[in-house]
Amino acid sequence: MQEINAVVAGAGIWGCTIARRLAEAGRKVLVIDSRPVVGGNVRCEIDPETGIEIHSYGSHIFHTHDDQVWNFIRRFTEFNGYQHKVLAHHNGKNYFLPLGLTLINKFFGTELSPSEVSSFMKDERHSTALFDAFFRGYTSKQWGKPPESIDPGIIRRVPVRENYDINYFNDYNQGIPLRGYNSLFENLLDHPGITVECNRPYKLGDFPGVKVFYSGPIDRLFDYRYGELPWRSLRFETERLNITDYQGTSVVNYPDIDVPYTRIHEFKHYHPEDKAVMAKTQTIIMREYPANWKKGDEPYYPISNEQSLALADKYKEEAAKIPNLVIGGRLGEYKYFDMDQAMAAALKIVI
Ligand code: UDP
Fold first, then answer.
1. What is the per-residue pLDDT across 45-96, written as a single tens digit (0 to 9) for each?
2. Are 56 and 43 within 8 A, CB to CB?
3. Which of 111, 167, 235, 338 has its CA 20 to 30 A from that of 41?
4. How far is CA 142 from CA 253, 311, 326, in A?
């Protein structure tokens, strides 16, 4: 192999963005990943029978208000213009999230105008009823504990609006890569300065003297010497159905506590521009079940509390003492990053 002057360990969004920047700066980069394929949890598979793109680790919708990120990513993929909308199925009825006039007026049977909604919601009976219907059960299932004991910043991810906007995200720039997420990664890594080796985990001390950009689990890097960082995991059940359309949209949330899953994804709706796939009399749905996590399971969401954040800081301090080592990404930083945030962080790193 040609001489390398940088290693990227972990080929998710953060790692692949760094690799591309390094290569464009003239470095010879080796990208390694312990998995057999690149893309981290953004990885998709194409169902051979229907051609439907399945988001193997749950729905991923790219959205950002960061112009630098938006300009960078569009060098490697076109987007299809998809705008994310989410339904919540509560008590036998479908409501459009987020909390806005569409949901509130349907739920309470009112016809509130934008100027009336704020005082209406100040009435604790109303806000409690909404919270109990759409957040309490979902959050308890998702995090395995009551909503009062989770970081309030997590629930604040879901916007609250005083208008009829039913976009799930506030970001104007959003979509799904026109030719799929895997092609985004292929294009990011398609540079003469980049070599990729899959099935190759990184161990501290590998590649002496070479700068390493690591985005695997930070506790694993140190053999869990201070203990394991806790995660929340997910389990998916995928089904191919012989009908054209199961739920009429890409994601339906199930906030009611008596339903064991939190949402159902129906992937063909992410590519409405693909008329051939949309017309197929088959569809693929995936039920998402939150799950406890133990070492060896797939980590999805960091469980952020005082203790876990202190432990993550301890590992980060250790990492900072190691010359030529840069840590990042969701697993490396132990942060609930959206894809654009991981990319933004990678664009800011001094390479
Ligand atoms: N949430 C909820 N009900 C919903 C959707 C979200 O209670 O219908 C809460 C839940 O605690 C969840 C958080 O809001 O963990 C963030 O939701 P988001 O849709 O951003 O979750 P993600 O897609 O990142 O899993």
1. 999 999 999 999 999 999 999 999 999 999 999 999 999 999 999 999 999 9
2. yes
3. 167
4. 11, 23, 31
